Predict the structure of Sensor domain-containing diguanylate cyclase.
Amino acid sequence: MEDMFDKLSATVTSANNLEALTRPLLELLETATGLESTYLTSIDEANAVQSIRIARNTGELTIPEGLVVPWGDTLCKRCLEQGRRVVSNVSEVWGDSQAAAALGIETYASAPVRGSNGEIIGTLCAAGKNSQKLGSRALSTLNLFSELIAQFIEREQLLAELARANDRLTKAALTDSLTELPNRRALRDELGRLLARAARDSSYILVGMLDFDGFKAVNDQHGHLAGDELLKQCAARLAGVLRGTDMLARMGGDEFAIIGPGPFDEAAGSKAAAELTVRLEEASAGTYSLLDVPVAFRGVSAGIVAIRSVSIDQALELADEVMYRAKQDRRSRNGGGTSRKA
């Protein structure tokens, strides 16, 4: 018995996942009960099925892992409903059980594995082909192990939920809530990585700043909700003409930025920047349905540069300067930015 507790202590303290905990426990449960099959199940009451998650078989009786059976007439369910922990004469007590008859189960022991809310999420079981009485020590071991597994599952679920919550917080910290695009922080992080890679392989990167021409007029004429809708719809159009390796981000207000890897040649980089500028300006121009009101929008002014060997702030400043000149040129050529479609 002392050796068993030593193994139990080592198992509980070293296990880093459910299988690493359960397999040694099943071996110890076999020793405590003398039954040839020990296994852990999960119960999906919504779909009325029971699954064998982890099993240990050392005799003629084989309970295969991955087996899925209807929950309605399992021996585990009968034990729970009748308040039994062990039945040593299954063929007499549950002679109508086809599963027990097919497997030749004569001794059956089961303890529920409960979630933190008391809901039964599985069972820990032991079974054998021969009739066998189980003493109080064996039943205490069964109960103890089922509680240990329940606590471990609860801990795993809590850790998983904490990880999901952390992922949500991380995403929220890097995402613009209106457009669901990356935000300023996310763009600066990615720009830093692109600049570092460009420094290693002597390539250029494309960096652009985008400004919505006439955005204030949309807000003034149609309201801030319409302005928000314009930002969302236009962002979708802009994203539609980008490569999978590009990042479009909202920097704040009606200011957006675009970054992506560029070619190795300076002339090719300048050409790629000019082509991207045209694509973005053409994609963003057109008629938008803003709160069921058609509004003609001239699009964004884009300033795209192909650069390398600069800092993050310098890269954004260079693109911003080119964008500002493009915006001034468009204003001098076209005047106002938006109009209500007749």
Notes: The chain has a mean pLDDT of 90.
